[in-house]
Amino acid sequence: MLIDTHCHLDAAEFDADRQQVADHACEAGVQSIVIPAIERANFPIVRDLAGQIAGGAYALGIHPLYVQRADDSDLDVLRDTIKQSLGDPRFVAIGEIGLDFFVPEISSGEPRERQERFYAAQLAMAAEFHLPVLLHVRRSQDILLKYLRRHGRIGGIAHAFNGSAQQAQAFIDQGFALGMGGAMTYERALQIRRHAVEVDLAHLVLETDAPDIPPAWLHPPQRRNRPGELARIAGVLADLRGITAAQVAHATTANAMRVLPRLPAAILADAD
């Protein structure tokens, strides 16, 4: 059993064959897919999609790359939607939220301040409703941690993590697992591969970020990533650590369920 803890299955790249992509993932051993929201407009979309696929789960949040076109009323809608979703077993986290200081246009000045304000507001919601977060982390590790330390242990997943060993440990100390995905499959990704090997397996989870971050074996023109690639990604992690793919699957599934405590109910929802 594998869990894709971060997959944008609602993306337009899947419009032509979304159900086939989900079925392929299931056939590849992916028992659950977590679909994060990115903005107010797709809150109902990810919720409905999670209910249409086996093991579907969703998160609600405003992505840092979409903050510039959001307004304060979107935060109000997010809070209301979270409250309304607490009774839904498929709702598992706040996300995708975070900070992106990689994109120059939003890494300083008012756009950066706006990112931080939306991140702080969404973290406060996570703390209020006792929910974990799916964190977008790009050149923003220390500032993300600064805000996290203002709360108790919120926990969740540091998505596509690529920070230092010290930063990795700081996120783990805050109750986070580190998301390992397609970037780990490239031999040149030395720092990510070090984390894959040196971080205790108890603090790693698997993800695809599909349709983005394609693994090394996907070549043009077929570069679209899919959740069904997770089995091979798990195999790469197993090879790097010198353990079996079954051991990776067992550990990362248990880790995902620990840092996303509502996830087992989402998986069991299909049995109801």
Give a written overview of the molecule.
By secondary structure, the protein is α/β, with parallel strands linked by helices. It has one domain: Metal-dependent hydrolases (TIM Barrel). Helix content is 41%, strand content 16%. It has an 8-stranded parallel β-sheet. Helix 8 packs across helix 9. The model has no long low-confidence stretch (mean pLDDT 96).
What are the key terms here?
alpha/beta, 8-stranded parallel sheet, globular, 272 residues, 8 strands, TIM Barrel
Question: Summarize this, please?
Answer:
With 272 residues, this protein is α/β, with parallel strands linked by helices. 41% of the residues lie in helices and 16% in strands.
CATH fold label: TIM Barrel
Give the ordered list of helices and strands: EHEHEHEHEHEHEHEHHH
Q: Can you list the strand order of the major beta sheet?
A: 1-2-3-4-5-6-7-8
Fourth-level CATH superfamily: Metal-dependent hydrolases
Radius of gyration: 17 Å
Task: Write down the domain tally.
Answer: 1
Per DSSP, what share of the residues sits in E-state strands of 2 or more residues?
15-25%
The count of β-strands is: 8
The CATH class designation is: Alpha Beta
Class computed from helices, strands and strand pairing: alpha/beta
Q: Give the overall silhouette.
A: globular
Number of helices: 10
Main β sheet profile: 8 strands, parallel
- Mean pLDDT reading: 96
- State the share of residues found in helices, binned by percent: 40-55%
| CATH architectural group | Alpha-Beta Barrel
Name the poorly predicted regions. none
Instruction: Give the N-to-C terminal Cα separation.
Output: 20 Å
